[in-house]
Amino acid sequence: MTRQYITQDGKPTFVIIPIDEWRAISATLEDRTDTAAVRAFLKAPSETFPDTLVAAILDGAHPIKVFREHRALTQAQLAAAIGTSSVYISQIERGERRAGRKLLLKLSKALGVGRDLLEAPQDCRG
Q1: Average pLDDT of 36-42?
Q2: Does the pLDDT value for residue 126 go beyond 50?
Q3: For the chain, what are the domain ranges?
Q4: How many C-beta atoms surround the C-beta of residue 14 within 10 A?
């Protein structure tokens, strides 16, 4: 490995290496980070979701609707599970109303996903 040292006050402070060597080091570090993430997941696996579900949310569908349909629930079934009306669920999914913190928590439990995954931008229509 070719390297050049830059010193300040007589102490090595920086090292300059060829770009190809830096790219190799960077790729190795990235691979190790990815490997650590996979190992952590395998130790404590969590639920994963299909690409189509994520794509639907990214395309503007309301997350509550997407997760409800993923769980094969009707609006009426979800509403009954959390103690509200299917009309209210429909309004939330269409972006006409926003779910408050308490309702989001109930929806989160009923759908089995984190509350943060159910929050949609104000302009979300689905």
Answers
A1: 91
A2: no
A3: 4-43, 51-118
A4: 9
d(CA 106, CA 109): 5
pTM for this model (two decimals): 0.65
Q: Which CATH class name applies to 51-118?
A: mainly alpha
Smallest Cα–Cα separation from 82: which of 95, 63, 100, 97?
100
63-83, pLDDT tens digit by residue? 999 999 999 999 999 999 999
